[in-house]
């Protein structure tokens, strides 16, 4: 009887461990909050020079209008990538934002055309525009542009989708 009881307890413990392991987030998921934490966003990798970022993609009107306003912050190696169908002088403001960011505009040639650093939520309703048309806009944690030494004309690449 004791052997039977011990076997049942071991099976229950093993099932509990297996269930907990299957529900535990991966290290990568924990670091980036996961796209599942923010429904509708997919992830791509964005590189600015030698620096790489996991970027949440905003490529629909609905996602673009939300932007980072549904986020509580960005990690050091996280970003939001806004993708547009055509080049334009896309303006950005800090409506409903809870944290400061750097904004980087990228032209059709995949080079930085303009950026704004340390844009605070208190700047709303000011709208920030690039110096030249862009097809992508990258939002990063405030101070990232300076930390990585990004400059106008630097190359940008996107892996894993548009």
Estimate nothing, just give the exact number of structural domains.
Answer: 1
| Amino- and carboxy-terminal Cα gap | 62 Å
- The CATH topology is Jelly Rolls
* Alpha carbon gyration radius: 21 Å
Number of strands: 7
Shape: globular
Question: Topology, please?
Answer:
Blueprint (H helix, E strand, L loop, with lengths): L1 H22 L3 H6 L10 E6 L2 E8 L2 H6 L11 E11 L12 E6 L5 E8 L14 E8 L2 H5 L7 E4 L3
Architecture overview:
It is globular, with a radius of gyration of 21 Å. It is built from 4 helices and 7 strands; from the N terminus they run ααββαββββαβ. It has helices at 2-23, 27-32, 61-66, 144-148; strands spanning 43-48, 51-58, 78-88, 101-106, 112-119, 134-141, 156-159. β2 (51-58), α3 and β3 (78-88) form a beta-alpha-beta unit. The protein has a single domain, classed as Jelly Rolls (Sandwich), CATH 2.60.120. It has 162 residues and is of the alpha+beta class. 24% of the residues lie in helices and 31% in strands.
Relevant terms:
162 residues; alpha+beta; seven-stranded mixed β-sheet
Can you describe this structure in just a few lines?
The chain is α+β, with helices and mostly antiparallel strands and 162 residues long. It is built from four helices and seven strands; from the N terminus they run ααββαββββαβ. Strand 4 and strand 5 form a beta hairpin.
